[in-house]
Amino acid sequence: FKHKVVVDPKYADKTWKIVEHAIHEIYNHNASGLSFEELYRNAYNMVLHKFGEKLYSGLVSTITFHLQEISKSIESAQGGLFLEELNRQWADHNKALQMIRDILMYMDRTFVPSTHKTHVYELGLNLWRDNIIHSSKIQMRLMSTLLELILKERNGEVINRGLMRNILKMLMDLGPSVYQEDFEKPFLEVSSEFYRAESQRFIECCDCGDYLMKAEKRLNEEIERVSHYLDPKTEAKITNVVEKEMIENHMLRLVHMENSGLVIMLLDDKYEDLKRIYNLFRRVPNGLATIRDVMTSHIREIGKQLVTDPEKLKDPVEFVQCLLNEKDKYDNIIILAFNNDKTFQNALNSSFEFFINLNPRSPEFISLFVDEKLRKGLKGVSEEDIEVILDKVMMLFRYLQEKDVFEKYYKQHLAKRLLSGKTVSDDAERSLIVKLKTECGYQFTSKLEGVFTDMKTSQDTMQGFHTAYGAELGDGPSLVVQVLTTGSWPTQPGVTCNLPAELSALCEKFRSYYLGTHTGRRLSWQTNMGTADLKATFGKGQKHELNVSTYQMCVLMLFNNADRLMYKEIEQATEIPSSDLKRCLQSLACVKGKNVLRKEPMSKDIGEEDAFFVNDKFTSKFYKVKIGTVVAQKESEPEKQETRQRVEEDRKPQIEAAIVRIMKSRKVLDHNNIIAEVTKQLQSRFLANPGEIKKRIESLIEREFLERDSADRRLYRYLA
User: Fold this and answer.
1) Could you state, in chain order, the average pLDDT of each consecutive group of 10 residues for the chain (720 residues)?
2) 0.85 cut: is pTM over it?
């Protein structure tokens, strides 16, 4: 027995009429008198009795009917009221949908999923989209109204951002494709045209700095606009438009702009403008590379001018100071304006390395700069400041390709500083040696340690000498000797001169004392490196103590036994080499305030026919007068050649050692690879010359360290 319930279709019609009436009332704002519980039950019963389809299709047609009415109301709204009416009707439609969804909740949960239909609320949104937003009379009007308002805002007018936010939020709620197709795409297109035209106007009338400020302002405005009423996802797209039209399309014109482009900003330290150009250009493809390339070629250009300027090359200390000033300048720009960007720092370093090595005398000049800074002449400079200077010098040192040439000069200058007692402090000297050791390894500084040991040992030796001979020395001249180990100190040509008789005797005493206490050693006097203090009495009995070089002392002592001496007589009596003697006489007779001698004829240079006298009229407000030698601060051409020759000689064993090391591990290698590997191994010391490497290979083949391959002449084999 089956019991079948048949529901009268009239029941369904009657129930639907109740629900339909309720939907009309909701849209007509008369919902207050409705019983939602009763309406829910009616809808529930319809679904239960299989009238879900009737309920659903009735819902579609009823909402559609109301939306068509609403559409007419929106279409008829004039001017500014158009968006307000749309916004008001949208808010009402949303409220209505929520109420309807509550009434039809049972249908939404059961009938809709089982028949794969759209849920009530989403259905309401889709109907709004099709009947309102995509209505032929609203769609284009809505888009053009929104774009017009944005244009007004871009031109400085105030618009109702709250209303814009609501309308655009509505488009987003209707689904991503509605927002994108009906607003975002056209928005990006007109924005692109707007900024293309504006950038063209700006670039014709603004300088680079002003243009960048305007571009930055526009970019910030667009970002702010997104935060107020656009979809957050639009931000990347609209900023991309501004970047492309205002920056990317004008990059080269901006950086090269006459009288205001990147080079002018760099020259005038315009940190704000530089920071702005960096931050804007980093947003576009190849933007930073463009800035970096212009900066690099500019730095190389000014560096090239600096290292080839004959005026700058006259004064090595000034030359190096100019390099440091340039480095400081660009370091500051990179730190303060370019976000301390490592790629810019690398570009700066490679530029400095490029032009410092254009001047073959850079290693010598940097050493002279160190010499100047570490001499006692630097008054009032704190240890911290000296440390800063040394760090900066090390930075320049890293750029040198010929570090071994710097080493040669540095050792010569260090020796002179220590021997003349003219160093700021041993700590500063040792600090630089530690820095060099860290940079280049132990072999670079091993001999320098010996230099300081010699200085200390010499003090002990002198104490022993005075203890042994103190009574004999009496009131005569006193002697201080520094005994230098040949290997540790830069070799000096062994030049002797004739010392005054009283000093010769004293030197002999020291020699016999020293050789008596040390076996198997030889002493040779380096008179060109010594100094002396002389007591002198001039014309009116005024007394002075003169601090002079050993050569100057030998010359002055001659005037104890003569009033007038010719150049030739002085040269014969002292046997001082002619170039040194001329410099020595120049400093005694031609330097104002230090001229203890006078010469005839009076001139700046020393001639071989000149006559010399004691200057009886010499006066000085100081009791102690220091007479420096007129120094050829830079090396003369022959000296330079000699140093270069010594450097080349020192390189030979290093190149050979590198070749042997490489061949020992590789056993067989072709010519080009040996050249490449040797160059690489030695580049921390110097740039090896391929021609010299080839000569060293030949030398090693002769001495049977290597042999050529019998089949392939470009292959070498290691002979164990």
Assistant:
1) 55 91 92 89 94 95 95 92 95 95 95 95 96 94 96 95 96 93 96 96 93 96 96 96 96 93 94 96 96 96 92 88 94 95 96 92 91 74 83 92 86 83 79 85 74 83 81 73 79 73 82 83 80 84 85 87 86 85 84 82 82 84 78 61 77 86 88 89 82 86 85 83
2) no
Quote the number of domains for the chain: 3
3-state helix, strand, coil in the chain (%, to 5): 70, 5, 25
Instruction: Please say whether the beta carbons of 601 and 610 come within 8 A.
Output: yes
Domain span including residue 39: 9-132
Does residue 256 belong to any structural domain of this protein? no
Please report, to the nearest 10 degrees, the dihedral formed by the alpha carbons of residues 664, 670, 672, 674 taken in order: 10
CA angle 96/98/101 to nearest 5° reads 105
Residue at which a domain ends, from 116, 132, 148:
132
The rounded distance, in Å, linking the Cα atoms of 164 and 155 is 17
Residue 393 belongs to a domain: no
Provide the b/e sequence for 112-123 (b: ≥16 CB within 10 Å). beeeebeebeeb
Q: Dump pLDDT digits (tens) for 79-112.
A: 889 999 999 999 999 999 999 999 999 999 999 9
Q: Residue 274 and residue 294: Cα distance in Å, rounded?
A: 13
Q: What is the largest CA-CA distance in the chain?
A: 160
Same domain, 79 and 126: yes
H or E stretch covering 25: helix 9-27
Looking at the structure, do residues 26 and 127 belong to the same domain, yes or no? yes
Q: Are strands 668-670 and 706-708 parallel, antiparallel or unpaired?
A: unpaired
Share of the chain above pLDDT 90, in %: 47
